[in-house]
TrEMBL record:
Gene3D superfamilies: 2.60.120.970, Cystine-knot cytokines. Pfam families: TGF_beta (PF00019), TGFb_propeptide (PF00688). This is TGF-beta family profile domain-containing protein. It is found in: Secreted.
Amino acid sequence: MDLYNSMSNAMTTHFPLPGLHTTSANTAKTYYNKGSAPLNTKSKKYRLQFDIDFIPEKEQIKAAEVRFTMLNNKVQRNEEFIHVIIHDIIQPGTKGVSKPILRIIDSKSINMSKVSKSESFDVTPFIERLSKNKFKENHGILVQCVTLSGSQIRLLSVFDFVSPEKTLLLVYTDDGTSEKSTLERMMRRSKRSVGHSQKRAKKICQRYSMYVDFKEVGFNDWIKAPLGYEAFYCQGKCSFPLASHINASNHAVMQTLMNNYNPALVPLSCCVPTKQSSQTLLYVDVDGKLVVKNYPDMSVDECGCR
């Protein structure tokens, strides 16, 4: 929801997040930690397991991050800074036989005197490795927390790993499709049909209000936010002479002129959207995953004759 709120008023279909290469991503999928909470409350290492076993081949992985909820306590305040290390578990170890094969993929020093609500870590290499292996070698990631002097710290005194929803994996992808048919395919999931509004009396080409209420059209069972949005639409005549304020192309001017000369030969130019903006949707996909996606051309900003 935080990601949706941050993107809902953005003037782009991408996710320009600091520190991550998400500028060309238009989809973010959320995965929760499926691993059990540490049995030992004094545990200084913890494995996170995310139930991610498939990303469509058409979607390019742009970035991935894990977000941990910080605990606002004073247990570690005697340490001004702590250092968090994230490992990709390449191969799990066997107790008494072999140690796990780990790869450090991110690390960060955190100022414990200025604890934020959450901290994020870049785990893009982890997701890229899984993708190359068709997600068959997903052993999770290992979190380790140490002081700057090197001594280890109890993880449960720093992060909320007890509540599964407080630990998230976000995978940012680009599905390579900006055409409207992408949203149209999603809309077919609804069993209800949308009725047609009465035709407005023909006037000069202009923009009219059209609020889309997702509950009214039967999409609220899978679209979780927003409840609706102002889409607008264009309607009106593009007749000769075209008003100066109408955003008309040169071709539309010529077509209107020819229509005025011989209406039977050439039809009037059409009143259509000439500038559109995107809309962010928070929805549940067919696999039950919570997805934030920016859909382009969802709202009309300007109308004109074309």
